[in-house]
Amino acid sequence: MPKLGMPPIRREQxxxxxxxxxxxxxxxDATIAEIAGRAGLSAGIISHYFGGKDGLLNAAMRRxxxxxxxxxxxxxxxxxxxxxxxxxxxxxxxxxxxxVNPAAMRVWLTxxxxxxxxxxxxRLQHANDRRLQSNLAHYFxxxxxxxxxxxxxxxxxxxxxxxxxxxxxAGGEFDVARARHTAxxxxxxxxxxxxx
Amino acid sequence: MPKLGMPPIRREQxxxxxxxxxxxxxxxDATIAEIAGRAGLSAGIISHYFGGKDGLLNAAMRRxxxxxxxxxxxxxxxxxxxxxxxxxxxxxxxxxxxxVNPAAMRVWLTxxxxxxxxxxxxRLQHANDRRLQSNLAHYFxxxxxxxxxxxxxxxxxxxxxxxxxxxxxAGGEFDVARARHTAxxxxxxxxxxxxx
Amino acid sequence: MPKLGMPPIRREQxxxxxxxxxxxxxxxDATIAEIAGRAGLSAGIISHYFGGKDGLLNAAMRRxxxxxxxxxxxxxxxxxxxxxxxxxxxxxxxxxxxxVNPAAMRVWLTxxxxxxxxxxxxRLQHANDRRLQSNLAHYFxxxxxxxxxxxxxxxxxxxxxxxxxxxxxAGGEFDVARARHTAxxxxxxxxxxxxx
Amino acid sequence: MPKLGMPPIRREQxxxxxxxxxxxxxxxDATIAEIAGRAGLSAGIISHYFGGKDGLLNAAMRRxxxxxxxxxxxxxxxxxxxxxxxxxxxxxxxxxxxxVNPAAMRVWLTxxxxxxxxxxxxRLQHANDRRLQSNLAHYFxxxxxxxxxxxxxxxxxxxxxxxxxxxxxAGGEFDVARARHTAxxxxxxxxxxxxx
DNA sequence: TATGAATGAGTGTTCATTCAT
DNA sequence: TATGAATGAACACTCATTCAT
Lengths: 196, 196, 196, 196
Prior knowledge:
The structure is a homotetramer of 196-residue chains. With 196 residues, chain A is an all-alpha fold. Chain A folds into two domains: 1-51, Homeodomain-like (Arc Repressor Mutant, subunit A); 61-195, Tetracycline Repressor, domain 2, CATH 1.10.357.10. Chain A is built from nine helices and no strands. The first copy, chain A, has helices spanning 6-25, 32-39, 44-50, 53-78, 83-94, 102-115, 119-140, 146-170, 176-190. The A-B interface holds A 25-29, 106, 109-110, 112-114, 116-118, 158-159, 161-163, 165-166, 169-170 and B 25-29, 106, 109-110, 112-114, 116-118, 158-159, 161-163, 165-166, 169-170. The structure holds a DNA duplex (21 and 21 nucleotides).
């Protein structure tokens, strides 16, 4: 049916329905019938577009990783040129409102847990981890020796993820201001005074 | 031959097998056949002793919560009488080696994610949260006004859980010394100088 | 349910139901629900006993191969000691009434066609082919040089299978007497006069 | 642009793709997507031209029956006028190279098996059987009394099909010369000496 | 004429649960 | 007390078919 250009629309619908379903009923109850139903489509179409449920979950996880990446990239692009500005932009991107709302965090934690026993999801997770760290290390290297920069990047990455997860555990609203403040302090502790 | 006293032994076997299974293959693949197999028992017995899979998972979660509780209680009992000693004992108990090894943390995170969409597990989770907080508040109240004590307890509880989860994310060994140090600092920040 | 000794009975029931189903509705419509229904059992039990549909079909094909083997072995054991007697017994076994009734032949032809595109079934088919031929060659070698024996065995095997299939195509009753007569003539043509 | 004359071309493409698919992957895996893909067309078109998959399979079987019919008719037309020449021509047509190559035989056997449980295909099969036999009987009647002619036709038809199937079972090259020789002998056995 | 998006019935399989022993 | 045979609902997936364009 020459309703051309449907594929990207359908994929989008299905990925959104997947994230919504995981948020609301959890991964264990996220059957393809449930997901397709929320998307207003039939179950069969999931295999048609994503090759199967695994493909859809994979695409859904990629989606939230990409949203995070985009949120960070935007802020970094808009930031000033100093390493400190760039690093603060990375922090801000990670605490973007698209990332720290309750629904997103529930989905994140779900994928996190799932990735512990699913090779494909773990790969995505690790790629994301590495990207955050190398991104941080890139800017630290401008003002710190290589080994110091690595250490600082590792520490800040852990702090960001830690604050992040601490937020998802709290259940209530994520206190962005406070998380940002904590991360900023951590950052300044590693930056040479001259770079402040 | 009735084999008196079998029930507690069987329950123990099955709960251990459940935790081991969740650690190794994940909750999604933790079928009762798999669990019973690891326990060296038949699948049917799970319904016999726990009323069903849900009952077993519930019991397994209670088990790890109780282990945490015991680890804390022991330390508190052995600690000095000052609020600071007691509060440090609570922190130490939470970072006990039975709690921060990779397997235990994997299971914890799994239950954490599951409790987001399972009413029974959520209840256990919340009860545990409240217990930690009221425990902390109890000792804070000895040296702080009620409202201050509440706030301090809430903050320290979040810090403990946060450090804890940050550790499970890191994947490697949990740095107990550092986590304890961070929590101690947080604690001293809230305690009046006179209580140090 | 300690109704001990059920497995072999169930397997038997299911294999019989499979052959009956293939005979009556064909392989394409031989769903596990249909088969299990004819056996008076639930569909799930097939995976339980045979690991899946493939396993059951495999077992069913093995069954008819084994029945053929047994029919031949019995006749050979009861036959006189001369190569001619043994070879005639092999022929007779292949045209045993358990093998040449319409239902059996329909199932045979079905498996034959299926084995053209199914690796597992083809393996069974070939193993059976080789067994028939080596069985024939064994007796031919007593009165013929090796290479001659091979050729004779190859020829007689083809003749047996050919008559057999010709029968299944005819649709009506298999004319055992005529098939046997034809095969005997073929046999005598290869045997040295002294061996008649 | 209506592209006049497309229908017959499309039908041809699809029938060929069907036979090719059945040869290579078997009837069970001959999905319409697979067939349409081999034809370089979309899946929907099959229902358009053949009303559905059944219609296509029907047409494909008709095709191979017609190819056989044509091969026979050609030879009969070119043959001498004696019954013996005509009958030999019918035999030759059945062992035409278009009929006895491995691919054609695999498809034949597949349809054969399928026709055992599919009313439509069985009808085609029987019509073909009857045509062969009445064709043979027609020429036998010139030199034999009616009842004798029927019997001879039935025998020769069975022999032809039998040799044919025996060939498809052998797996290797079909020995046309030998099959023809066997059928000729059978034929001469029934023909009155004067008709040789 | 031909497409390809979409459906939904049907399939094999898994698995928690039941129950006779 | 404990088994393991058996069930049946739920699942992901396949595929012939339909239909708007």
